[in-house]
Amino acid sequence: MGGALPKCFLPLAGRPLVAHALAAFARTPEVETVILVAPPGWTEPARELLAAAGLADLQIVGGGESRMDSVERGLQALEADAPELVAIHDGARPLISPETISATLAAAAQTGAALAATPLTDTLKRANADLLVTATPPRENLWRAQTPQCFRYDLVCAAHQRAREEHWPATDDGMLVEKLGHPVQLVPTRGYNPKMTTPEDMQRAEHLLSAAAETRVGHGYDLHRLVTGRPLVLGGVTIPHEQGLLGHSDADAACHALADALLGAVALGDIGAHFPDTDPTYAGADSTLLLAHVAELLRQNGWRLVNCDLTIQAQAPRLRPHVEQMRTRLAAALGVEVTRVSVKATTMEGLGPIGEEQAIAAHAVVLLQA
Distance between CA 29 and CA 103 in Å, rounded? Predict the structure, then answer.
């Protein structure tokens, strides 16, 4: 792929490539435990990348130099509490559906071994080193093997052990089980389940995910009175001023409006319901931490922030010099790139309580995608 990251961590629709497959397994009722086998040396970076995508409590083990080595390490991680069935999936197949996972597991429960596959529809050609056709094999009864590949745990472990002892070559786990003499059931794939191999594959997957994604828009508004003796905090930035905003927390109207917009977009209530002003825990609280909590809650519910647009209404002080710092602080709290965060400031031309420097308000609009 030509990237600095391993392929499975390249961004796809705003999340690491492998996060899409992990999310599909998390939505599959039959799946009890998910283990990610990361490339060698990538266990901790994988943990950080996936935590930012809302997959914080994932078991991750280090992989080996070959596919077989990595699968074996994943199987070994299950030894202490060995399951009846195990599904092995290629993280480079992000569009796998829970329906295909369930169907393949069900077939493996009956036969001991099953794998997702699609029938071959193209005509096959065999060619020599000069790319001249030497034969046209019949395509009848030919299938493209995919993943997940599901097996009785003891069966696939035995197949890997024999392969190691006898140096069997194999490009997937189904081949090892076949060589062991056990039949493997094919399960027609539900939906589209391509493997990401080229940048063009990623572009097609990005388009499909964007077209299928659900989007939500949220709006938030907050206003706080200006008083003496309080620091002025907006967008996570303390701004020099003779007055600050009155409130139970640090009264950061920008963070509060943004949190309300996020919660409102997915109908999870408002900031008052999550952080009530009757709870002493939140007295003087840093509102960027409250905002980070809201962002994590959305990630756990399968939502990601596409962008947010924040408008702060203040007659004084002048906020423009602080806008970039606000964007940086808000992006960090939200766990997104700063390019997804817009902050604008405007006055009220001396009109109303804001224009008369009695209060500061903020409006926020967010776009979320599932």
Answer: 12
d(CA 62, CA 101): 24
**Neighbouring-strand partners of residue 118:** 144
How far is 67 from 92, CA to CA, in rounded Å? 13
What pLDDT digit, counting tens, does each position of 27-68 carry? 899 999 999 999 999 999 999 888 877 777 789 999 999 999
What is the rounded distance in angstroms from the CA atom of residue 227 to the CA atom of residue 325? 24
| Cβ pair 234, 361 in contact under 8 A | no
| Model pTM above 0.90 | no
Q: Are 100 and 116 in contact (CB under 8 A)?
A: yes
Q: How confident is the model at residue 14 (pLDDT cuts 50, 70, 90)?
A: confident
**Directed axis angle between helix 153-166 and helix 67-76, to 10°?**
140
Give the phi and the psi of residue 272 in degrees, each rounded to 5.
-65, -30
Residue 87: how many other CB atoms lie within 10 Å? 22
Tell me the β-bridge partners of 113.
151
Residue pair 73/37 in contact by the 8 Å Cβ criterion: yes
Residue the block writes with tokens 């995608």: 369
As beta bridge partners, residue 306 has: none
Helix axes of 17-26 and 98-111: crossing angle, nearest 10 degrees: 60
Q: Which amino acid is at 213?
A: A
- Phi, psi (deg, nearest 5) at residue 135: -165, 155
Distance CA 50, CA 167 (A): 35
Among 85, 94, 97, which residue's Cα sits nearest to residue 188?
A: 97
Instruction: Find how far residue 91's CA is from the centre of its chain.
Output: 13
Half-sphere exposure of 218 (CA within 13 A, CB side): 27
